Amino acid sequence: PQTVHFFRKMPQGETDLQRVYWWEKRWREGVKNPQEPKQVLFLSQETSPVNPSYDLIYIGGALGAIHAAMMAKLGYRVLLVERLVFGRMNREWNISRSEFQTLIDLELFTPAEFESIIAREYIDGFSKFFDSNNPAHLKAAVLHTPTVLNIAIDTTKLLSLCGEKLLKAGGKIWDQTEFIRADIDANGVTVQLVNLATKEAKQVRGRLLMDAMGTTSPIAWQLNGKRTFDSVCPTVGAIIEGLEPSVWDVNYGDVLNSHGDISRGRQLIWELFPGEGKELTIYLFHYHQVHPENPGSLLEMYEDFFNILPEYRRCDLEKLTWKKPTFGYIPGHFSVGKRDRKVAFDRVLTIGDAASLQSPLIFTGFGSLVRNLGHLTHALNLALTNDQLSAEDLNKIRAYQSNVAVTWLFSKGMMVPTGKTLPPQRINAMLNTFFGLLADSPPEVADTFIKDRTTWMMFTRLALKAARKNPALLLWIWEMAGTQDMLRWLGSYADFTWDSLKNWFKKRF
Q1: What CA–CA distance (Å, rounded) separates 378 from 368?
Q2: Distance between first and last Cα of the chain
Q3: Cβ distance 153 to 13 under 8 Å?
Q4: Distance of alpha carbon 452 from its chain centroid, rounded?
Q5: Which of 146, 227, 369, 492 qualifies as a FRET site for 120, CA 20 to 30 Å off?
Q6: Cα–Cα distance measured from residue 32 to residue 30, given in angstroms and rounded to the nearest whole number
Q7: DSSP per residue over 60-93, as a string?
Q8: In 3D, which of 64, 53, 106 has the Cα closest to residue 87?
Q9: How far apart are CA 98 and CA 75, in angstroms?
Q10: What is the pLDDT of residue 227?
Q11: Which residue from 341, 338, 356 is spatially nearest to 492, judged by alpha carbons?
């Protein structure tokens, strides 16, 4: 009831609520039957006589738009297919200046264009977890991160700019168009689509299909089955105006915050980011084990969001201006090595959330894609130039980082396993253990760690400090993760150690 009531207050709220239903339905279908996922990729023994009209066909116009614009800039014939009206999405993106500089260095954007898409640059961001029920040694100071996610991007302007660059380079955009299936032969891939506005069936042929459909991607489910996603953050929220300045200063962000302990098997976490003018983007999410009996519900989360938002930040919901809902399933994958997950099929490559590319702590795929865009597009350019488009070749084009893979244990430690009961204060105690160490360290330590740049020495030092501060920590994680995942994590750590040694030898000799 609360969800319907407040969605009615938003422009296009009815359409957006239908999209929440659609996303949850698609997610549940994948989670409940991962052994027999819907088949959408088919190998054909007969070669089509039709030459590919495009080098690259992208399905998904959010993160896909950035990647597509970059490849169009390199001279490739690009088609971008988007299920919604192009430029509209139900996620907002935050990043730092140093991270966005990657896109400027790649000459995808100019410095002036970057400034034009900044909705807000805030002064400082905070991370603080509820600790009233934690023992004294596990209470933590507020972690200040002034250069983490401190720039709110105007996503509409960013996607519009990507669209302009794509079209200017000769690319095409087909929006309100849904992917149905793809037939792959020796010379190309034939993609079946349907226009949702006219119900007209479409067919187009390209050299390579790029899957940027996120967690709803049937391609990702077909490639990986029950190991498609190991964890997920069901995330809901809204862009609002009207929060009193005495409640929140729009010059500051709330990067991670919990205002209570585990409830109904979930440790709820808030985020609050200032946007343009007096706008605030507020999210509520929890880390969740992907389980057929407990997929995770956006609709249930929205009911919680509207009911407990005044507990998080004092407000009268009826007096707020509701601008736009923000929601989605943000995925995670517990990687053991560079080949632990399939990201490709013959003439098909997944990117972004569909490839489970994300940061385990701040769960954003946008920053991860931006950081890795240079080497991803370089590798893809080589593959296209040399016509190395088999599954074996394309599976090498991935954004795997051993220093990121090793941190998945943190997200594992933030979720309550289905069917298990934990002491209510357990997850907050773990978060306060680690974030307390970051708060007590020099600012560059937290900045480096959260931006996925941590070194082996930094990670190992922090892990040992955490174990000394909270000797029960390892036992807690073992209880939550289980023996199998702990052994998988040791494999990740060994891989991280080996990569670090190789890099040390390269620099030294």
Answers
A1: 16
A2: 65
A3: no
A4: 14
A5: 369
A6: 6
A7: -SSHHHHHHHHHHHTT--EEEE-SSSTT--S--E
A8: 64
A9: 27
A10: 65
A11: 338
Burial of 246 (0-12, 13-18, 19+ CB in 10 A): exposed
Least-confidence region, from 15-24, 65-74, 352-361: 352-361
Residues 6+ apart with CB under 8 A from 240: 279, 280, 282, 320, 321, 322, 323
Tokens of 183: 């037939």
Looking at residue 404, what is its pLDDT?
A: 76
8 A C-beta contact, residue 213 and residue 179:
yes
Between CA 472 and CA 459 the distance in angstroms is 19
Full-model pTM: 0.93
Q: Which CATH architecture has domain 2-394?
A: 3-Layer(bba) Sandwich (3.50)
Write the DSSP symbol of residue 477. Answer: H
Helix (H) or strand (E) holding 329: strand 321-332
How high is the pLDDT of residue 138?
95
- pLDDT, tens digit, for every residue of 194-212? 999 999 999 999 999 999 9
- At 118, which amino acid appears? I
CB 440 within 8 A of CB 147: no
| Mean residue pLDDT across the chain | 92
Q: DSSP letter string over 291-308?
A: BTTB---HHHHHHHHHHH
Q: Which residues contact 134 (CB under 8 A, 6 or more apart)?
A: 425, 428, 429, 432
Structure tokens at 503: 């890099």
Place of tokens 């027999």: 36
What residue spans define the domains of the chain?
2-394, 402-508
Contact 467, 474 (CB under 8 A): yes
Distances (CA, A) of 244 to 310, 313, 315: 12, 10, 8
HEC assignment per residue over 152-166: EECHHHHHHHHHHHH
Dihedral pair phi/psi, residue 17, rounded to 5°: -65, -35
Helix (H) or strand (E) holding 381: helix 365-385
